[in-house]
Write a structure and sequence with these properties.
The protein is an alpha+beta fold and 888 residues long. The protein contains 27 helices and 32 strands. 40% of the residues lie in helices and 21% in strands. Helix 4 crosses helix 5, helix 5 packs across helix 6 and helix 25 runs parallel beside helix 27. Bound molecules: (3S)-3,7-diaminoheptanoic acid and zinc ion. Zinc ion binds next to helix 3.
C-alpha cells in the first residue's frame, strides 16, 4: 500500500481543539469481497445529526487513507462530483440531511499492505488491525473513538483457501456461493468505535472450550491458530478462563457476548488487540508449551490474555472520547492485569517486576525529549503514544487512586464509572470524577498526575532527636522540567513508610500531637507541598526509615540513608518492595561510584556480600523473590543514575560486581543450583516451580560470572541436556557473554534444532544480538543476511534490531558510533515498509543528552541523517523532531 499523506504534511492534533462530531453513525453494514489483488469494501452507514452539538454544518467529515473510491451515494442517490471533495486523508460530503443512509464502495490491496494497519495479509490469511486509526485504510468513515455504531459484517472469499471467516459479535448466517466461494455474516450488538472492528479470513484450526458466567450463561471460547499449532494453545485458553473468572470475582464484571475468539497471527505490530469478541494476537503471545516457551513467556502470555480480556469492560464497553484519553483504558487495564497477576501469583514479586520495568523504561522516557503527560496535550502520530508512560505510569496513577481510596471505595468508584458511562466514549476526568463521587475523597490536586509529565523526585531525610525522642522526616518534592513544562505545581504523592528499630521491627508511628490510641506501624504520608515535615513521637533510638513501601508512587527516591542502613533494610525490611529497593539503591550507589572512578575491584562492601549469602542460605524466602533480590539493576537503570552515562564503565562495574558475588558465594550458588535441579519437574508450571527455576537460573549465572572453570561446562551441559525452553535459555543466557567454544557450540546446536520454529528462532536472534562480546555488531549485521531474517516480520525486527539497540547498551553505544549508524540505517530502511515498527526503534537515539559530548554529536548526526530522508513517515518524523529538541 502506498502511503498517501496530507498535501500540507502531517498535522499536529491538540486536545484543546477537540470538538464533538457533527454527525453520529448508528449502524454500519460492511461487505468485504476478498479477492486476490483487490478487495472490494461496500459500506452502508445509517447516520444522524449529533444531538449533543450545536454545530449546524451539513458537511460530514470522513477519514480514508490509500483507498480507491468507486461510488458514493446518499439516501439512494449517487452523489455527483461536486457533492463531495477529497483532501489528503479526508472526504468532505456536503448537504447531509438530519438523518441519512450513506453507501460507499472502495477497493483496497491488502496484499501490498506492509504497514500492518487496516486490512493486511499474514502468512496467507487476511486480518485487521484498526487501533488507533487503521479503519480509515479499509473504508471512508468518521474514524474517531467517539463515534460508536452497531456493526454487521459480511465476508466473502474463496472457500478452499479461506474456510474460516470471522468478525466481531455473533455469526448470523453463512453459506456457499458460486465459483467455490462462500460467505459469512456477523453481527455485533454492542455499539463500538471503529478501532475495535476486526475481520479475519484464513485456513485456520480452531480449539474450542467454554465458560459458564456468574449469571449462568454459557460462553463459547475459541482459539484460532495455524494448523499443527493446536497443541500450543492450552495456556492461552486456561489464562482466558481464569481471567474471566477473576473479573467476575474481583470487579463483578461478566462477559457479554455468547462467543469470545482469539486469533493468532505471525505478523503483528505489537502484542495483541482487544477487538470486540475477536481478539487478534501476535502468535508469540498465544502459542506455548514447555519445550518452546520459557516460564517468562508463560507469564507474559497470561498477562496479555488477561489484559485484552479485561479491555472488554475497560476500553470496549466504556471507551475513550479521543486519543488523548488513551490512558483511560490502557492505564486502567494495565492496573487490572497487574492485580490479576498479583492475586494469581506473588504480589511482592509482581510489584518488584513492575517497578523494575518502570525504572528501566518509563523513567528514562519521562526524563528525555519524548516525555509526555499521562494525558498528552498534542501529538503528530497517535501510534507514537502507545508508550510506557500511557500504559505503565497510567497504571501507577490508577494504583495511587486505589491506595488513597482503599479497595472498597475504589470498587464503588468502578461500579459508579460503569453505571454512568456504559456505552459511552469518555475522558480520564470522568473516571476520576466517578472515583471522587463514590468515595467523597477530593482528588483535585491528584489530577496533576494526568497533566504534568516527568518523574517527581522525592528527597526524604530522617533526623532523630534523642532528647525529645522524636524522629523527623523532612520531605521535599522536586519536579524536573520536561518539554513544554518548565515549571510545575506540587503534586499529591502518597509516601508509604515505616520506621524500623535495630531488630528490624516496625515502631508505632505516632504523629506529633496525635491521639495515642491505635497507632499504626505503617502509614501513607500525603506529601502535597514542595517541602513538608512529619514528626513522630516516642522514638527512643535512631530508627531506619522504610520508604516508598509497595512502591506507593512512581517517583525517584533520594534519602540520607547510609550504605549500611540500605544493607540493613535489604536484610530486614518486611515490605518486599522496600526490601528489594534498598538493595537496588545500595547497588546503584556502589556500581555508579565504581564506574565514575573506573575502579573495578572491591566494588561491593562486605556487608552487602554477607547479606547475599544470608539470602542464599536463609530458609524462609520465596525463591522467585530471592531471584529478584539477587538481580542487579540493569545497565540502563545504572546509566540513568550516572551523568554523563558511561556505558562501558557501567558494563565493567556491573560485571565486576557479578564476579565478586559469584566468587564469594560459589559454594552457596552451587548448592542452590543442585538443590533446585533435583527437586522439581521441569514441566511443572506452578508459581512455586517457576520461582525455583528463576532462582536456579540466577545461581547458574553467578557461577559463570564468578569465573569458575567448571561453571561454563555446567552451563554447556544444561544447554545440551535441557528438555524445556526455560532450562535451555537460562543456560544460553549464562554463556552468552563468555567467549568460549561452549557458547559457540551451544548456540549452533540451538539454531539448528529450532531453525524452523519462528518463535524460538527469534530467541536465538535475540541472544546473538544482545551478547556483550566485542564483535556483536558485526554479528548483528550478518544476522540481517540470515536466510530467515525478514524486515517484513515485526517479531524478527524486534528480535534483532530492537534487541541490539535497546538491550545491548555497551555495544550499541560503541565509542566509534557504529551502533548508532547501524540503527539509523535500519530505521530508514524499515520506515518505507512499516512506519509504526520503525518509529519504535528510534527511542535510544533520542536520549543523547545523557551521554558525553562525542556520543551526543554522533547520535544527533544520526537523527539529522534520518530526518533528511525524503518521504519519512509522520511516525518517525515526530520522534526525530522531538529527539532533536524541536517541539511540535
Ligand atoms: N490496544 C492495543 C494496542 C493498540 C496499539 C496501536 N498502535 C493493545 C492493548 O493495549 O491491549
Ligand atoms: Zn491495552
Amino acid at each position: 500500500m502506498t502511503r498517501v499523506e496530507n498535501a500540507a504534511g502531517p498535522q499536529v492534533k491538540r486536545l484543546s481543539d477537540y470538538t464533538p462530531p457533527a454527525f453520529m453513525i448508528d449502524t454500519v453494514a460492511l461487505d468485504f469481497d476478498l479477492r486476490d489483488g483487490e478487495t472490494k469494501v461496500a459500506s452502508t452507514l445509517q447516520g444522524r445529526r449529533n444531538p449533543q452539538t450545536t454545530d449546524i454544518t451539513d458537511v460530514l467529515e470522513l477519514d480514508g487513507q490509500g483507498l480507491r473510491l468507486l461510488s458514493i451515494s446518499l439516501n439512494g442517490a449517487a452523489v455527483p462530483e461536486g457533492g463531495y471533495r477529497i483532501e489528503g486523508d479526508k472526504l468532505f460530503l456536503s448537504a447531509v440531511p438530519e438523518n441519512f443512509t450513506l453507501e460507499i464502495v472502495t477497493t483496497i490491496e491488502p496484499e501490498k499492505n506492509t504497514a500492518l494497519e487496516g486490512l493486511y495479509m499474514s502468512d496467507g490469511m487476511y486480518c485487521t488491525q484498526c487501533e488507533a486509526e487503521g479503519f480509515r485504510r479499509i473504508t471512508y468513515f468518521p474514524d474517531r473513538p467517539d463515534v460508536m455504531a452497531v456493526y454487521t459484517t459480511r465476508l466473502e472469499a474463496d472457500a478452499d483457501r479461506f474456510p474460516v471467516l470471522l468478525s466481531n459479535g455473533n455469526l448470523m448466517q453463512s453459506g456457499m456461493l458460486d465459483e467455490g466461494r462462500h460467505f459469512a455474516v456477523w453481527h455485533d450488538p454492542f455499539p463500538k468505535p471503529s478501532y475495535l472492528f476486526a475481520a479475519v479470513a484464513g485456513d485456520l484450526a480452531c480449539v474450542r472450550d467454554s465458560f459458564r458466567t456468574m449469571s449462568g450463561r454459557e460462553v463459547e471460547l475459541r482459539v484460532y491458530v495455524e494448523h499443527g499449532n493446536e497443541h500450543l494453545t492450552g495456556h492461552t485458553m486456561d489464562s482466558l478462563k481464569r481471567s474471566m473468572k477473576w473479573d467476575e470475582e474481583r470487579f463483578g464484571l461478566e462477559y457479554d457476548l455468547d462467543l469470545f475468539m482469539i486469533v493468532a497471527v505471525s505478523h503483528f505490530n505489537m502484542g495483541a488487540m482487544e477487538n470486540k469478541g475477536l481478539n487478534i494476537f501476535n502468535s508469540k503471545f498465544v502459542l506455548a508449551d514447555p519445550q518452546t516457551a520459557t516460564d517468562a513467556d508463560y507469564e507474559r502470555l497470561e498477562g496479555i490474555v488477561a489484559h485484552e480480556y479485561f479491555h472488554n469492560w475497560t476500553g470496549n464497553r466504556v471507551t475513550c472520547r479521543d486519543w488523548f484519553q488513551l490512558s483511560l483504558k490502557e492505564g486502567l487495564t494495565v492496573f487490572r492485569d497487574q492485580e490479576f497477576t498479583s492475586d494469581t501469583h506473588s504480589r511482592g514479586v509482581k510489584r518488584v517486576a513492575d517497578a523494575r520495568l518502570l525504572r528501566a523504561v518509563q523513567f528514562p522516557e519521562d526524563a528525555g525529549p519524548t516525555a509526555h503527560p499521562v494525558r498528552p496535550e498534542s501529538y503528530l502520530e497517535i501510534n507514537n503514544f502507545y508508550t510506557v508512560t500511557i500504559y505503565e505510569k497510567g497504571a501507577e496513577v490508577i494504583r495511587m487512586i486505589h491506595e488513597l481510596l482503599g479497595a472498597d471505595a475504589f470498587r464503588r468508584g468502578m461500579d459508579l464509572y460503569f453505571e454512568r458511562h456504559d456505552g459511552q466514549a469518555v475522558r480520564c476526568e470522568d473516571f476520576v470524577a466517578a472515583m471522587e463521587d463514590a468515595s467523597g475523597i477530593d482528588l483535585g490536586q491528584f489530577r496533576l498526575w494526568y497533566s504534568q509529565s516527568g518523574t517527581p523526585e522525592l528527597e526524604v531525610d530522617l533526623a532523630h532527636d534523642p532528647d525529645a525522642k522524636t524522629a523527623t522526616l523532612k520531605v521535599r518534592q522536586i519536579l524536573p522540567p520536561t518539554p513544554g513544562q518548565p515549571a510545575k505545581e506540587p503534586m499529591l504523592i502518597p509516601l508509604s513508610m515505616a520506621l524500623l528499630d535495630g531488630e528490624g521491627q516496625a515502631l508505632p508511628l505516632q504523629l506529633l500531637g496525635e491521639n495515642a490510641e491505635d497507632i499504626p506501624k505503617a502509614r501513607v504520608l500525603p506529601v502535597s507541598q514542595s517541602e513538608q515535615v512529619f514528626v513522630f513521637e516516642n522514638v527512643d533510638d535512631r530508627p531506619v526509615p522504610s520508604l516508598l513501601r509497595g512502591f506507593s508512587a512512581p517517583v525517584r527516591l533520594r534519602t540520607n540513608r547510609t550504605a549500611e542502613q540500605e544493607c540493613f533494610l535489604y536484610r530486614h525490611d518486611d515490605d518486599p518492595f522496600a526490601r528489594w529497593d534498598a538493595g537496588q539503591a545500595y547497588l546503584t550507589g556502589a556500581l555508579t561510584a565504581a564506574a565514575r572512578k573506573g575502579r573495578y575491584d572491591a566494588v561491593l562492601d562486605d556487608d552487602f556480600l554477607q547479606a547475599v549469602g544470608e539470602i542464599l542460605s536463609g530458609p524462609d524466602i520465596e525463591p522467585a523473590f530471592a531471584a529478584e533480590l539477587l538481580t542487579l539493576p540493569g545497565e540502563s537503570v545504572l546509566a540513568d543514575a550516572m551523568t554523563p552515562a558511561d556505558p562501558e564503565a557501567i558494563h565493567a562495574a556491573r560485571n565486576a560486581a557479578r564476579r565478586e558475588i559469584g566468587l564469594r558465594h560459589a559454594g552457596l550458588f552451587q548448592e542452590s543450583y543442585d538443590r533446585l535441579s533435583i527437586a522439581h519437574d521441569p514441566e511443572d508450571m506452578s508459581t512455586a516451580a517457576m520461582g525455583s527455576r528463576a532462582l536456579k537460573a540466577v545461581a547458574l549465572g553467578y557461577l559463570v560470572a564468578g569465573g569458575d572453570t567448571g561453571a561454563v561446562a555446567l552451563a554447556a551441559l544444561q544447554a545440551a541436556a535441557a528438555t524445556t525452553m526455560t532450562e535451555s535459555m537460562s543456560a544460553l543466557q549464562a554463556l552468552n557473554n563468555v567467549d568460549c567454544p561452549e557458547r559457540r557450540d551451544a548456540m549452533k546446536a540451538f539454531h539448528d534444532r529450532w531453525q524452523d520454529t519462528p518463535l524460538v528462532l527469534d530467541k536465538w536472534f535475540t541472544l546473538s544480538a544482545t551478547s556483550s562480546l566485542p564483535d556483536t555488531l558485526e554479528t548483528v549485521k550478518r544476522l540481517l543476511e540470515h536466510p530467515k531474517f525478514d524486515l517484513a516480520t515485526p517479531n524478527r525486527v524486534r528480535a534483532v534490531i530492537g534487541a541490539f539497540s535497546s538491550g545491548n547498551p555497551v555495544r550499541f553505544h560503541a565509542p566509534d558510533g557504529a551502533g548508532y549508524n547501524f540503527l539509523a540505517d535500519q530505521v530508514v530502511r524499515l520506515d518505507e515498509m512499516n512506519p509504526q515498527v520503525a518509529a519504535r526503534l528510534v527511542a535510544p537515539l533520542t536520549r543523547w543528552k545523557r551521554y558525553d559530548e562525542a556520543r551526543q554529536r554522533m547520535m544527533r548526526q544520526c537523527l539529522e541523517r534520518i530526518r533528511r530522508y525524503a518521504g519519512l513517515s509522520p511516525d518517525v518524523t515526530e520522534l526525530v523532531a522531538k529527539g532533536l529538541g524541536e517541539e511540535s
